[in-house]
């Protein structure tokens, strides 16, 4: 399995559209069966946690909306 992490969601979408061609090219160059699956992920979301202590539940963002 080959894991790819894109820098943006737009790049992740474009690479997902190219996965069949990319898989074929990898098979041609390296050999068939080496890469059995290609997984493309976008960037992870922001981490709102700060410091060593954590608040259970929604915490300080429970007033949005």
Structure write-up:
The chain has one helix at 9-29; strands spanning 2-5, 38-41. It is α+β, with helices and mostly antiparallel strands and 65 residues long. Strands 1-2 form a two-stranded parallel sheet. Strand 1 (2-5), helix 1 (9-29) and strand 2 (38-41) form a beta-alpha-beta unit. The model has no long low-confidence stretch (mean pLDDT 86).
**Unreliable runs:** none
> How do the strands line up in the largest sheet?
1-2
Largest sheet: 2 strands, parallel
Subunit organisation of the chains: single chain
Helix-strand makeup class: alpha+beta
Relative helix content: 25-40%
Overall geometry: elongated
The number of helices is: 1
Helix and strand element order? EHE
The portion of residues forming beta strands comes to 5-15%
Rg, Å, rounded: 19 Å
Total DSSP E strands? 2
- Report how far apart the termini are: 41 Å
| Mean pLDDT across all amino acids | 86
List keywords for this structure.
65 residues; alpha+beta; 1 helix; 2 strands
What can be said about this structure in brief?
The protein has 65 residues and is an alpha+beta fold. Helices cover 32% and strands 12% of the residues.
What's the SSE blueprint?
Elements: E1 2-5, H1 9-29, E2 38-41
């Amino acid at each position: 399995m080959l894991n790819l992490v894109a820098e943006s969601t737009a790049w992740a979408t474009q690479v997902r559209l190219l996965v069949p061609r990319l898989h074929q090219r990898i098979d041609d160059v390296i050999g068939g069966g080496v890469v059995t699956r290609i997984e493309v992920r976008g960037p992870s979301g922001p981490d709102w946690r700060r410091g060593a202590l954590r608040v259970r539940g929604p915490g300080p963002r429970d007033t949005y909306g």
